[in-house]
Design brief:
Oligomer: single chain
Distance between the termini: 14 Å
Number of helices: 13
Strand content: 15-25%
Number of strands: 9
Length: 392
């Protein structure tokens, strides 16, 4: 049956009765957060000590770590060098479906390379997963592992291409969509742990080769800096044990803060990421620790704040940070109506796997299985009914 729009309409009206009061409440909390940001903008050491104290009380705390830059600092765009190379990669996948006649997975990775004064380069790498690859450690390949493998292949393709360009005497930047941090925790899974180690190995080689790398997070919903400011409030209330549980500024996000601070083209201060998953990056090499800044890629009348994640081996060089800022702004201006890095947009177009391509791949597999004297499996009854509904 179709959606009952009348029921939904009534629910919308009921649930939005509090919109005005919630909007005012959020505005009050935002002003409080801005005042704290101003008050503690130069008190980085105090905040570090506070964060160190809280980390012994709340191991799962997730927030920003202050750098030496003022918390409310704003840094304008600097001119980029005349020549540079940007490599962007994006990936898509087909997840294994046990209801299909043939169970398989696909990881498709697209790369777009731009070099000033040269024609762009496009590459795609497609990999099919079959048999034991679908059951690592005798367990069905899950979304977490598939996503981690996709991330790893994006980084690997970027590194391979970057090494081919390494002889060029100009800065080289690699870019991916989304955070550098992996929320998929390896924990006790050996396969996940191995993939995570491979991911770190790629970052280590980029550091060794002097390759700048960054992750671009469009429309971030994070509240890392707000969570850091909340610790001050909890300390005043003598409730530090509730860090990460009580959220006195809940509803305010970092973009709310920095859309009030950053002019078009400006970046925020640099911050580190304090979290269990981020900590894994720097266990063997502090230079792989994750850092980030916010960047206003919008216009004066319509600010648009994004988050940019970089490893410490990039963050500790001011000229590299300025270059990342400048190149991202240059890329976003090419799609000025809806600012987004053009190279990432092209990498996505190269990598995306369409629904009809899945059926083509399934047919290719089934034909090859029959050619070898075997028979593919049977579509599940559940899937058969779904297919019939789609056809109708």
């Amino acid at each position: 049956m179709p959606v009952n729009f009348q029921q939904i309409r009534e629910q919308i009206q009921q649930k939005l009765t509090q919109l005005e009061s919630r909007t005012q409440e959020k505005q009050d909390l935002l002003e409080k957060a801005l005042n704290l940001l101003e008050e503690y903008s130069q008190k980085q050491n105090d905040l570090r000590e506070l964060l160190n104290q809280v980390s012994h009380l709340a191991s799962n705390l997730r927030c920003a770590e202050p750098s030496d830059e003022a918390l409310n600092g704003s840094f304008d765009e600097q001119p980029a060098p005349e020549h540079w190379i940007l490599l962007a990669a994006d990936g898509s996948q087909i997840a294994p479906d046990p209801h299909r006649a043939v169970e398989f997975g696909v990881i498709n990775t697209g790369l777009f390379a731009f070099q000033t004064g040269a024609s762009p380069l496009e590459r795609v790498k497609s990999e099919m997963l079959l048999f034991d690859e679908l059951y690592p450690n005798h367990v069905p390949l899950g979304e977490e592992m598939l996503a981690l493998q996709r991330d790893l292949r994006e980084r690997g393709l970027l590194l391979t291409q970057a090494l081919e360009f390494r002889q060029k005497e100009c800065p080289l930047i690699t870019l991916t969509d989304g955070p550098l941090e992996l929320y998929r925790q390896p924990q006790q899974d050996d396969t996940l742990q191995k993939a995570f180690e491979d991911y770190l190995s790629v970052l280590s080689q980029m550091k060794k080769e002097g390759i700048i790398t960054a992750g671009y997070v469009d429309r971030p919903r994070s509240d890392y800096v707000v969570s850091l400011l909340e610790l001050v409030i909890l300390r005043e209330a003598q409730s530090l044990r509730d860090a990460g549980k009580k959220r006195p500024l809940w509803g305010v996000r970092d973009v709310d803060l920095f859309s009030r601070i950053l002019a078009p083209g400006a970046r925020s201060a640099l911050f580190g990421i304090h979290s269990l998953s981020a900590k894994r990056f720097s266990m063997d090499d502090e230079d792989l620790a994750l850092c980030f800044f916010y960047l206003n890629v919008g216009k004066q009348e319509n600010p648009y704040i994004v988050r940019v994640e970089i490893p410490r081996f990039v963050a500790k060089h001011a000229d590299r940070v300025a270059l990342v800022q400048s190149i991202l702004l240059d890329q976003c201006r090419q799609l000025s109506a809806h600012p987004y890095p053009y190279a990432l947009h092209r990498a996505h177009e190269i990598a995306v796997v369409h629904y009809d391509e899945r059926q083509v791949l399934e047919n290719m597999l089934a034909m090859e299985i029959r050619r070898r004297g075997a028979e593919p499996g049977q579509v599940s009854h559940k899937q058969s009914h779904k297919d019939n509904i789609s056809r109708r």
